[in-house]
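FAQ: What does the model actually see?

It sees only this:
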Amino acid sequence: MIEPHVHVAWAPYGAGVLCAAFWLVQGRHVYGWFTGARGAAYPACFFALEDYYADDETVFYRSAQNDVHGPWLIVTADGEVPIEHEPVPPELCAELEREQDAFVHEWLFYRDEPGHADDAVELRERGIPLREVNLRPKKLAKLQSGADVETYTSVGADLNVIVFLSGRWPLDYVVR
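And it is asked to produce this:
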């Protein structure tokens, strides 16, 4: 099992979870998952960055929904185009699903998901509004405080992956 890299950005009194992402590096390629705010919605997608760590041009693919086995899109400067194949190797799909499950369980909870009443109460007690997607209170101490946005990036993570994604993904969060 490969240790995933993680980046989380949170605006507790703004949009909430701006970005929660993990990724795995496989040679010259990067595979992962993200969710975050886009207006009042919280899209979630698996992604593949083909040739990210190569001299070739990086190709960005993302799942059309939150399903590694569902339809995929290629993302270009001209927009998004459906593709016929999954860009993730079949042997890696199950790993991505496991990692996504573990990542969500560790970092996030959904407002309507059963079993998180204590998390919801703790956020409310801190004066933090509940949203569709929320950070687990036990993770708040890991965040680095910023002016309006608090972030966490795992040790050794290449934040340039998030910079690349943020210029192209369907989230409002942009890293410059």
